[in-house]
Amino acid sequence: MYEAKKFDLPALDGISQKSVDEHLGLYAGYVKNFNAISSLLGEYAKDAEKNAHALSELIRRRSFEFGGMRLHEHYFPQFEGGPSAAPASGPFFDAVAKEYHKMEYLVEMMRAIANMRGPGWAILYYDPEAKQFLTGFTGEQHQGHFVTLPIILAIDVWEHAFLLDYGALGKGKYIDAFFKNLNWDVVEKRFTAVSA
Ligand SMILES: [Fe+2]
């Protein structure tokens, strides 16, 4: 059984407290539903033949709930401590510069992915084996991940992340607000942890 985590969030610029509170409520829902599905599996597996369809749907939906739980646990801490500028030196800066030439170009790529159509996440991964970044779009919470790769930056671009503050057409403004509030120290620390 998993428990919903608490986040020490400052007031955000351009993302309202009401939106954050509702978003935290949605996050808690993923934790609750992951646990709920997990608790059903044993019972359904007792007669796997009779419950084949229900069981296969539960198994498939469980990774959706888990993805929702873990991705939000990557999302909210990115605002903890308040905004800080992207690093201008150090191993993370160097690794980004090697692949993207400038930090701005990586941000540009992440913005482009975040603006893609459909609910999901724009994610920056790092592959410690190949020593390179991979950028991707995860549909819903669980589809299209680069398996096993650690997540360095996660931008929630489900409509629930921006609808309250900016309306259905306001994704671009929300992405601006996301970067305005982003604590790059958190991103850099994740890179440091997985690239050693
Ligand atoms: Fe979300």
Question: What would you note in describing this structure?
Answer:
Helix content is 52%, strand content 11%. Helix 1 (17-45) packs antiparallel against helix 2 and helix 3 crosses helix 4 (103-114). The chain has a three-stranded antiparallel beta sheet with strand order 2-1-3, sandwiched between helices. The chain is globular, with a radius of gyration of 18 Å. The longest helix is centred in the first third of the chain and has 29 residues, at 17-45. The protein has helices spanning 17-45, 52-75, 91-100, 103-114, 163-166, 171-181, 184-195, and strands at residues 120-127, 132-139, 151-156. The chain is mostly helical and 196 residues long. Bound molecules: fe (ii) ion. Fe (ii) ion (FE2) is lined by residues 23, 26, 72, 156, 158, 160-161. Fe (ii) ion (FE2) binds at residues 23, 26, 72, 156, 158, 160-161.
Architecture blueprint of SSEs:
Elements (H helix, E strand, L loop, with lengths): L16 H29 L6 H24 L15 H10 L2 H12 L5 E8 L4 E8 L11 E6 L6 H4 L4 H11 L2 H12 L1
Antiparallel strand pairs: 1-2, 1-3
Helix pairs in contact: 1-2, 3-4
Fe (ii) ion binds next to α1.
Question: In oligomeric terms, what are we looking at?
Answer: single chain
Low-confidence segments: none
**Distance linking N and C termini:** 31 Å
Strand order of the largest sheet: 2-1-3
**Average pLDDT:** 97
Can you count the beta strands? 3
Number of helices: 7
Order of helices and strands: HHHHEEEHHH
Biggest sheet details: 3 strands, antiparallel
Hetero compounds: fe (ii) ion
Percent range for β-strand residues? 5-15%
The helix-and-strand class reads mainly alpha
Helix content: 40-55%
Gyration radius, in Å: 18 Å
- Outline: globular
